[in-house]
Structures
1.
Amino acid sequence: MAEQEPQPDDRPRPKYGELAPPGWVWHPPADADRLDTSRPAPRDEPSDAPAGAPLPRFGESRPGGAPHPGTAGRPGPGGESSATGRPVPTWNVTLTVMLTVFGFFGMLYSITGLQGITASMQLLHTTNDLGDYTPAPVVSTLILVGSIILGVVWAVSAVIAAWLLMKRRLAFWVPLVAGIVAMTVLLIFSGAVLATDPALLSFYSGVTPPATTPTTPPTPTTPPTPTTTP
């Protein structure tokens, strides 16, 4: 006997509460908001981790090397994520810019001080009665090379700091290292210029040139004139 196909129901559908008995009101069950923990949660995709292994945290990679689903490219909880996946603190940019600007003014002050070192040495000669200061021919070369190196140190540090900021990495340490290098360069070239003045080195080392006292020739004595008696 062939099965009969179901006939479509053309009757009008009842509206909400139309077939309910008079006075009936629907109340939600008491445990409607409770989570159903009797069944395991569905997994989006199979995992290669062994049974009983802890699930990876937010942002961590799974045993296969792939990031956890839904976490790739998202920033970490501490700020923008770096290329290595670690969060970058938000104060990194502000502190790096402030230290770079401070290093720029420090570089200008160091170059100005190195350019005026000959005037300072002349003042020391005048104060300590060492006579006029005559700079050696190599002094101008030392001042020029030292000034160029100070400018290059700041420029290289600024470029490296900007590159690290673009890569979202810690960059505040770059101006600090550049400041230490610039201070070392300033001390080296200042000492080299000071070493070209033996008179000033002898004065500050406690060795003073022996003072020469002029000798006066003895005054000639005239013999007594004989007296004649009448």
Note: The chain has five helices and no strands.
2.
Amino acid sequence: MEKMIAKGAEAELWLRDWNNLKVIFKTRRPKRYRHYELDKQLRGIRTGREADILHRAKMAGVPTPLVYMLDLDNATIVMEYIDGVKIRDVVEYLEKDERYEIFRRIGEYSGLLHKEGIIHGDLTTSNIIKLGQRIVFIDFGLSEISFEVEKRGVDLNLMNRMLTSTHYVYQEDLLEAFIEGYRSSMGEEAGEALERMEEVAMRGRYIEKE
């Protein structure tokens, strides 16, 4: 079995059978406009960094796909296939209490990432999967290691924007739950990051008005 399930600007995701497992092959595609050797080196570095961050996140207590194999020469990660549903697609079908608890956990996991110095880079409900009782964070392709408050604020603003645009009916409750969870794992550092989230949102609104 082989099926392409996503194709982005940087990488392709293929669902395949591998060693009696359903897995995802994530491969960064060559960029023809770059010098061949430089392109190969960059893709290898970014692939290695993503695999490392997946491992760091898991060690920090955040559920992420297992990495089964890393092929730097071909810029490929073979990882666990999370056969669940994106949080984005189930929010409106959940009971109020379950929605609140899920977003409290999402906030808690986001805090654990930031506490460990991991900036997700695309922190939205499209990149979080519900599988039974598991809440799994995926797609760390834009992730980086940083303890900068600005980058934490940008990460949080991405989630807030998603709640406002896609889940606007429940935005206030979901943001409240997210912040509760975030504070529980980030502790005293949460306040500064959340303030920066508001500043980033204000800057975005100012630019839109311009």
Note: The domain at 85-209 is CATH 1.10.510.10 (Transferase(Phosphotransferase); domain 1).
